[in-house]
């Protein structure tokens, strides 16, 4: 029986080690240019898992660089054919395949509007790769499982490397050098998400704060894709502004704990939510090469857990029904 999703998730440490080495010089060059002419804003362009990497990038570049980051609405280009005024903007496009027509069109119009286009792609010789002003290859190799794993982790590590060189953040660079080993350690940890916790579950909420919320979006997507569970992601702070009333019905909540500046606040909020009657599933990894990298280590564990849970529940995580690898939207 194929185990593509598990095998690809397990390959992340080697992929990221290779990526960090091969991209170092190119990353330093792009970072030097960003230091010389800092962008006023950053536009993130992506769909699905790549869009979720963009949410991580928002926290990373706003906290680390002080530059406002916003998500593109691809329909503005694809449906409404509008070119935005983007002088002084860095447009970062993330795509495993580099082929989706609406992402390529959004990048074209961003470039026409004056933005500098940086592509993070797995397939360098793709329409998006050829269009971009700069390319950071993900070096993830062919991804055969429909649910993306290694390309998401490789996208986050590439963003972190760029941020570290741009801001001359030596602690983050040291953390990145330790990241492959941290991912290997996460693979050896006991599962935190069990099939028996998810069996029969139809609805759940995934909560995190800051960088934890960034990965919560990806966790919720995988619960939908792989297990057909309706899952929605919220910031734990935002959840208190109305949706918290859902916990009165013993709502299942997956709690993503990250030990950074927002960790203690998130933990207190989760205690209050649990006291209202929510059923909590906690996910936390003690392995932390750097606070900004702990989300990657947590996602490494999650990908292996959900793949195993799917098989125990009689599902095929490599080929969820109704999905295909490259989704071409316009």
Automatic annotation (TrEMBL):
The residues covered by the SIS domain are 30-178, 194-320
What is an example of a Pfam family matching this protein? SIS
Q: Which InterPro entries match?
A: GlmS/AgaS_SIS, GlmS/FrlB_SIS, SIS_dom, SIS_dom_sf
Molecular function as annotated in GO: carbohydrate derivative binding; transaminase activity
Question: What domain of life does the UniProt record list for this protein's source?
Answer: Bacteria
Q: Which residues cross the membrane?
A: none
CDD domains, per the entry: SIS_GlmS_GlmD_1, SIS_GlmS_GlmD_2
Q: Which UniProt keywords apply?
A: Aminotransferase, Repeat, Transferase
Biological-process GO terms, alphabetical: carbohydrate derivative metabolic process
Q: Does the keyword Transferase apply?
A: yes
The stretch of residues making up the signal peptide is none
Instruction: State the PANTHER family in the record.
Output: AMINOTRANSFERASE-RELATED, GLUCOSAMINE--FRUCTOSE-6-PHOSPHATE AMINOTRANSFERASE, ISOMERIZING
Q: What is this protein called?
A: Glutamine--fructose-6-phosphate aminotransferase
């Amino acid at each position: 029986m194929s185990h593509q999703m598990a095998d690809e998730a397990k390959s992340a440490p080697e992929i990221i080690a290779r990526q960090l080495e091969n991209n170092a010089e190119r990353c330093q060059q792009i970072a030097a240019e960003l230091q010389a002419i800092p962008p006023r804003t950053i536009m993130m362009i992506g769909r699905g898992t790549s869009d979720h990497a963009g949410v991580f990038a928002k926290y990373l570049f706003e906290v680390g660089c002080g530059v406002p980051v916003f998500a593109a609405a691809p329909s503005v280009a694809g449906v409404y054919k509008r070119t935005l005024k983007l002088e002084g903007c860095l447009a970062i496009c993330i795509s495993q395949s580099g082929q989706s027509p609406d992402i390529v069109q959004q990048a074209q119009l961003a470039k026409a509007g004056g933005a500098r286009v940086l592509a993070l792609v797995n397939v360098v010789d793709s329409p998006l790769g050829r269009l971009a002003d700069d390319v950071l290859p993900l070096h993830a190799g062919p991804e055969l499982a429909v649910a993306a794993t290694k390309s998401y982790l490789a996208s986050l590590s590439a963003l972190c490397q760029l941020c570290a060189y741009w801001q001359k953040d030596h602690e983050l660079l040291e953390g990145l050098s330790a990241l492959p080993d941290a991912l290997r350690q996460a693979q050896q940890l006991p599962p935190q998400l069990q099939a028996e916790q998810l069996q029969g579950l139809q609805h759940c909420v995934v909560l995190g704060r800051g960088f934890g919320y960034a990965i919560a979006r990806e966790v919720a997507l995988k619960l939908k894709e792989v297990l057909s569970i309706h899952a929605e992601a919220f910031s734990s702070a935002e959840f208190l502004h109305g949706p918290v009333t859902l916990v009165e019905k013993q709502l299942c909540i997956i709690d993503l704990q990250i030990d950074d500046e927002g960790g203690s606040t998130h933990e207190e909020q989760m205690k209050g939510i649990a006291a209202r009657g929510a059923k909590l599933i906690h996910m936390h990894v003690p392995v932390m090469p750097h606070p900004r990298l702990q989300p990657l280590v947590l996602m490494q564990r999650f990908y292996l857990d959900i793949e195993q849970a799917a098989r125990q529940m009689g599902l095929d995580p490599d080929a969820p029904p109704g999905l295909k690898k490259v989704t071409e939207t316009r």
